[in-house]
Structure prediction request, 594 residues.
Amino acid sequence: MRALTWHGKHDVRVDSVPDPEILNPRDAIIRITSTAICGSDLHLYDGYIPSMKAGDILGHEFMGEVVETGSGSTLRKGQRVVVPFTISCGACFHCSKHQYSACDNGLPADNQDIAQAAYGQPMAGLFGYSHMTGGYAGGQAEYVRVPFSDVGPIVIPDGVEDDKVLFLSDILPTGWQAAEYAQIEPGDTVAVWGCGPVGLFAVQSAFLMGAERVIAIDHFPHRLDLARRFGAETINFEETKIYEALLEMTGGIGPDACIDAVGLEAHGFFADNVWDQIKVSTFTGTDRTHSIRQAILACRKGGRVSMPAVYGGFVDKFPLGAFMEKGLTLKTGQTHVQHYMPALLNAIMEGKIDTTFLISHRMPLEQAPEGYRMFHDKQNEVTKIVLKPGMDLPQAA
Amino acid sequence: MGTGLTGTQEQDAPITTSKDSDRSDIAAAQLDAAKGDTLVGKTVTINRPRQDLYDYWRTLEQLPAFMENVERIEPLGGNRYRWTVKAPAGRTVEWVAAITEEKPGEAIGWTSEEDADVANSGRVEFRDAPGGRGTWVTATLLYDPPGGIVGKVIAKLFQREPAIQVRRDLRRFKQLMETGEVATGAWTQAQRAEEMN
Prediction:
């Protein structure tokens, strides 16, 4: 089959690789019909994530048709499914509490060592996201092996197009969980750092959960336009001081809840950001963390900070004093995708949540390297690229 | 046994986590016919009743399903078993070990016979986890880290560090008992076969 493989920083290629096979009873093989490039794939592309190996197949947002099932799978050939990016067993203590991304059994035993050393306990497996998360082949390919296919994939009713439901795999539940973790109360003002896909879904989710106002922060005009389309007020941080603006826009109180949907590769020329970048490039720190610092300083006293953004390692200058003195609550984590999928599929079917607005580009899998370049270089126009393995290559002009 | 107190300190931490350099002597004193002077111990919580887990383990022939470096375990009768374990260069090493302790639903202990090349003793204990969370499975292993050719065998047997092997085997046992399978990141049969070697 053809698959998008990682070879190093800014080096991804479409290669011919062996087809996946059923290896365990609960496996299924899916023929991919749609697969997206995620903002967090850019962390791999930029070389921020350790434990990658040349030839690894990327991609953790995907859906397709069931073509083969193991004896323990509950799926049937021909069913269309969206697959969660988290690989979770459904049987351990954490899965029984619906903390799917904390699954004990999603990672192969040997791979658990790295995660355990880094984080104290191993986490769930992830598709296409380094060997620390299991070394599982991702879905930016023609086919993929899906473990625990009896608890992960959600079956999509006939007649619902891919583009409407694809984002159930990661970014929609991630934006939803971010808003849920912000514990929104009626009357609340919610500030969202980052108007990428997760931030934009967090904006929609926050309104659905009863937020009175949402203030979205970014520096790409097109992304701010999208946030405004869902009713958010906006701040362009290239033109405006974020902390001062947030306080003025909330009568000096600060937002009741702050959502950091930016994460470890924050942009912008702030003093602490530049310092972080120096430390990252000299291997004395891994994460650039401007947005979470701002969120803690701007948040109202006794407020909530929700952090869906991906961080991998250590930070310093975390404003622990402000966090403590103001009595903030911080809630974060990888998304428990399986927990949210059924309700969010219903919300899509009922037209309560719009997902297709996000897709700016559709291209064949063969053009994936170009897609990575575009997504990396043109974040204003490129909001989401969906790769379609079956799509014809455009004719040369 | 593996989870006993240090005896010198008023605390509840298991002996395997002690900073005391004599901890293996203390543990050995608690095992029947203990062999070896290096101690490792690990506990894992498994979301299954302890009798189920005991029953699986007591059928020693099944253990290679999750013990990556154990090729096979054959019953010789009278509680004696021949262990065949992968060694470097595609070779294997064998020894005979006898079951020394058998408490249904609670514990199994074994120790190698006198002439074994790889002297070792082990014990696995099954306890109800608090709060209805299934079973705490504690594996305790005593072994001699030898030199020479046997040192190489040991290195392979325990992937250089016995604590690593015990930890990984317990994770695989948990996966098998909770999910019915052992997780793999491979995507072809050939890749998985390579991982096993």
Chain A has two domains: 2-169+335-388, 172-332. Chain A touches chain B through 36 residues (CB under 8 Å). Residues 172-332 of chain A form a domain with the Rossmann fold fold (CATH 3.40.50.720). Confidence is low (pLDDT under 50) at residues 266-271 of chain A.
